[in-house]
């Protein structure tokens, strides 16, 4: 690959990506078109001027996509599959029963966020966010504040940040040889962050649309749909653990998690038909995310600043606009990080913007009004505050202890 062309000291690749993100922020009703246009501009620029990491021209682009296709395929299958899972969960009538289990004031919103946090510690954060969003739609009578949506995404990302089975980035660290105990330290920051953003977000929501005090009468839970939801989640969890422990090389060549989810969806379709009507809109949101992830993977980020706690803190903000998977891969290759900090930063940091994590994109497919960077940032401000405070509490409690072995 030729050295990047600089404009005002900044690689043109980054400027094109920044313009794409700016376009997404301004034209939030045309996000798919903006993302695809930005991706096309970046690809054309690299085809003509700089080439790609694995070579120049079409061959270089082809080799790049060979390295990225498993990640993209997994994201596609998971986002599409978990949209059907959320509808199974909604149609099971379990969310309608939740008002009987949650406190009937702002503390009910906090308890729901805690449930999302716990679910995400052992499930995929996309599934946890969608389950939280489905319950919120029912207990808040379909009027969910954007600040609370940001909190649901933040809870799902925080819950996965300290578990090697809770997030793709922490799973990558586990595969690379990082001890699960080194990653679990991230929960010190994640729990503090949770305590900070959960209360103001829940109070915002209670003022916007109070929680429903009592469930509708005459509810009948569809146990078959509950079983299907559980089967999909167990399949994803089992596929993740078994593949990492027994067949790690398979994860680089086959989208194992996505295939496991869709296998259960298709095998159980005869018992209860999935709600296929959600697919067209979900497809648009999924292609949007894949366009941004692909564009981010094309950026010349082969060298990161020297590993340190300020660098780790900065990576959290970067992960709000860059895909955290390549950032994690680069950090692992570089070495010298305290991995608990990196897990928290790249896992939780993407919550600060709606397209900064796959959980945010999935939830925004369910709530299209959330697809506004300005409203997400202004109404979800507790998430950014919580990220910084959680990081510095962890630093004060543990200190910075880099591990040069990975």
UniProtKB/TrEMBL annotation:
Transmembrane segments: 5-26, 32-49, 69-89, 109-134, 146-166, 186-203, 224-243, 249-271, 283-301, 313-332, 339-361, 381-400
Membrane topology: Multi-pass membrane protein
Annotated localization: Membrane
UniProt keyword annotation of Transferase present: no
Domain Citrate transporter-like: 31-340
Domain of life: Bacteria
Keyword Membrane among UniProt keywords: yes
Protein keywords: Antiport, Ion transport, Membrane, Sodium, Sodium transport, Transmembrane, Transmembrane helix, Transport
One annotated GO biological process: sodium ion transport
Pfam families to which the protein is assigned, alphabetical: CitMHS
GO function term, MF aspect, one: antiporter activity
Family, per entry: Belongs to the NhaD Na(+)/H(+) (TC 2.A.62) antiporter family.
Name recorded for this polypeptide: Citrate transporter
UniProt lineage: Bacteria, Pseudomonadati, Pseudomonadota, Alphaproteobacteria, Hyphomicrobiales
């Amino acid at each position: 690959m030729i050295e990047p062309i600089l404009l005002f000291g900044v690689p043109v690749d980054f400027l094109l990506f920044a313009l794409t993100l700016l376009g997404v922020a301004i034209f939030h009703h045309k996000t798919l078109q903006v993302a695809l246009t930005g991706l096309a501009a970046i690809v054309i620029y690299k085809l003509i001027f700089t080439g790609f990491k694995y070579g120049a021209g079409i061959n270089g682009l082809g080799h790049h996509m060979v390295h990225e296709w498993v990640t993209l395929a997994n994201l596609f299958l998971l986002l599409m599959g978990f949209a059907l899972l959320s509808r199974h969960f909604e149609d099971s009538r379990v969310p309608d029963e939740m008002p009987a289990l949650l406190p009937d004031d702002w503390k009910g919103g906090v308890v729901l966020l805690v449930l999302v946090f716990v679910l995400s510690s052992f499930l995929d954060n996309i599934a946890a966010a969608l389950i939280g969003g489905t319950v919120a739609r029912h207990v808040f009578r379909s009027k969910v504040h954007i600040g609370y949506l940001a909190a649901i995404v933040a809870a799902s990302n925080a819950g996965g940040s300290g578990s090697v089975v809770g997030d793709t980035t922490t799973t990558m660290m586990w595969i690379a040889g990082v001890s699960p105990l080194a990653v679990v330290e991230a929960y010190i920051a994640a729990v503090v962050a949770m305590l900070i953003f959960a209360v103001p977000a829940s109070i915002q929501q209670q003022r916007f649309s109070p929680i429903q005090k009592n469930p509708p009468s005459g509810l009948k839970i569809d146990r078959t749909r509950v079983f299907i939801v559980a089967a999909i989640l167990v399949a994803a969890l089992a596929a993740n653990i078994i593949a990492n422990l027994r067949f790690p090389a398979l994860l680089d060549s086959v989208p194992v998690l996505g295939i496991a989810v869709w296998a259960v969806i298709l095998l159980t379709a005869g018992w209860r038909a999935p709600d296929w009507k959600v697919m067209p809109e979900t497809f648009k949101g999924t292609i949007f995310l894949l366009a941004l992830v692909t564009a981010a993977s094309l950026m010349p980020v082969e060298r990161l600043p020297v590993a340190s706690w300020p660098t780790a803190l900065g990576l959290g903000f970067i992960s709000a606009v860059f895909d955290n998977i390549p950032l994690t891969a680069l950090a692992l290759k570089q070495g010298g990080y305290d991995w608990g900090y990196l897990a928290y930063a790249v896992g939780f940091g993407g919550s600060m913007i709606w397209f900064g994590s796959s959980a945010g994109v999935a939830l925004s497919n369910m709530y299209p009004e959330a697809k506004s960077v300005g409203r997400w940032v202004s109404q979800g401000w507790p998430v950014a505050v919580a990220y910084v405070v959680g990081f510095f509490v962890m630093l004060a409690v543990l200190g910075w202890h880099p591990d040069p072995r990975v």
